[in-house]
Write a structure and sequence with these properties.
Layout (H helix, E strand, L loop, with lengths): L1 H7 L17 E4 L2 E7 L19 H23 L5 E12 L7 H16 L6 E7 L8 E9 L2
Parallel strand pairs: 3-4
Antiparallel strand pairs: 1-2, 2-5, 3-5
Helix pairs in contact: 2-3
């Protein structure tokens, strides 16, 4: 089972965070789930703020990317009822708050990619983009959105 794999890897699938805005955390259309940008909240708070390459190391950024993906999986479970309905991760886009000279956005995003592949195998392999940006909502160092094929 998927949640057992997550636990075996040393992670816990959190509860889905309620959306306080006019948009959906997950929108499903024609068997494709669009997961809104997900922040690395832990117990409702950002564990770290700042820019990668400045206040945040690559390893810390990778850990935050893992938390983002775990929160995205929680949102998917909330919408689908069961993570076994995931057929394929199609696209993962990571937004990385970056110092002016930081060019390792892909290394940070590897935290999410590696976790998805370790949990889902080939179904976790995806196309991706890592985008550097100077400022993010709430000062978060990482935000991740994804597109996922599902059995709805």
């Amino acid at each position: 089972m998927i949640e057992e794999k997550i636990t075996a890897l040393g992670h816990t699938l959190p509860e889905a965070l309620p959306t306080k805005h006019a948009f959906s955390s997950v929108l499903i259309h024609d068997g494709i789930a669009y997961v809104s940008g997900t922040l690395p909240y832990v117990d409702g708070k950002l564990p770290q703020t700042g820019q990668c390459g400045k206040e945040v190391t690559i390893e810390e950024g990778k850990r935050l990317a893992e938390i983002c993906i775990l929160n995205a999986l929680a949102a998917l479970k909330n919408e689908l009822g069961d993570l076994r309905k995931i057929k394929q991760f199609i696209k993962v886009t990571g937004f990385i708050s970056s110092a002016d000279d930081f060019t390792q956005q892909g290394a940070v995003l590897n935290g999410a990619t590696e976790l998805l592949i370790n949990v889902f195998g080939d179904q976790g392999k995806h196309a991706r983009s890592g985008v550097g940006t100077p400022v993010m909502p709430g000062g978060t160092p990482v935000e991740i959105e994804c597109i996922v094929a599902v059995d709805a």
